[in-house]
Design brief:
By secondary structure, the protein is mainly beta. Helices cover about 10% and strands about 40% of the residues. The protein contains two helices and 14 strands; from the N terminus they run βββαβββββββββββα. The chain starts with a strand and ends with a helix.
């Protein structure tokens, strides 16, 4: 099984995150009237740019180098955070933090750590098959507006479009890209900290150096690992 690491969102935090879908279209060129008709052939793939990441400390620089060594260019796999707090359906209308909570009997794990509990709770209503372009979402704890939000399931990242139907707390919405892996009924979806399974966009995308004034910032670009999802069904 492929080795997947997670980008350390708290240690190597960018000033700006740009998660965007690169549409895949074909065109036959411009017509005599200058029109260039294009046909969408699929729902595209994610492109994520992390811009101006502070690498001031030794921990930040060493972690950067360790990730670069693990990825070994664009072959490796990394779950990249898709910061989306500007879009998400928080009940309060503003960003709410992920909290840590103990077990039901108020005890922590053996190492004294606690569960992470997100502010948003949304599950699937019914099974969403591989290749689906719509999904039914049931709100457990979230604002009643699931238009234009992002979520992930097993590091497959999606965004929703205009609402198709609302039935009480169940929202039916289109999603892009097409579903990468079957999502079972009742699955908890990651809205607080969505991630996308990616490759480096370029073999030398994590090249670094030494900034003599020790205030270096770096940027890195990723593309969705569509080959990984394809390998699961081949």
């Amino acid at each position: 099984m492929a080795s997947i690491i997670q980008w350390p969102r708290d240690l190597l935090r960018p000033r700006e995150c740009r998660p965007n879908i690169a549409p895949f279209t074909r065109t036959g060129g411009r017509a005599l009237g200058g029109v260039k008709p294009a046909v969408r052939t699929d729902l595209g793939f994610w492109s994520i740019d992390l811009l101006d990441i502070a690498v001031y400390s030794s921990d930040q620089r060493r972690t950067w180098e360790a990730i670069a060594q693990h990825l070994s260019g664009s072959a490796g796999l990394v779950a990249v955070p898709a910061w989306s707090q500007d879009l998400q359906p928080y009940v309060s209308g503003v960003e709410e933090p992920v909290e840590t909570v103990p077990h039901d009997d108020d005890t922590p794990f053996d190492d004294d750590s606690e569960y992470e509990q997100g502010a948003i709770s949304i599950v699937t209503d019914g099974t969403t098959p591989l290749g689906a372009t719509t999904i039914r979402l049931r709100i457990i704890n979230a604002a009643a507006n699931l238009v234009g939000v992002r979520f992930s399931y097993e590091h497959a990242l999606y965004k929703t479009g205009p609402v198709i139907a609302v039935d009480g707390d169940i929202w039916t919405v289109p999603i892009s890209p097409a579903v990468r892996v079957l999502i079972p009924a009742g699955a908890d979806l990651e809205f607080d900290r969505p991630t996308c399974l990616c490759h480096l966009a370029d073999d030398r995308g994590m090249d670094g150096g030494v900034d003599t004034i020790k205030l270096e910032r770096r940027s890195v670009s990723f593309v969705e690992a569509t080959d990984y999802w394809a390998s699961l069904v081949s």
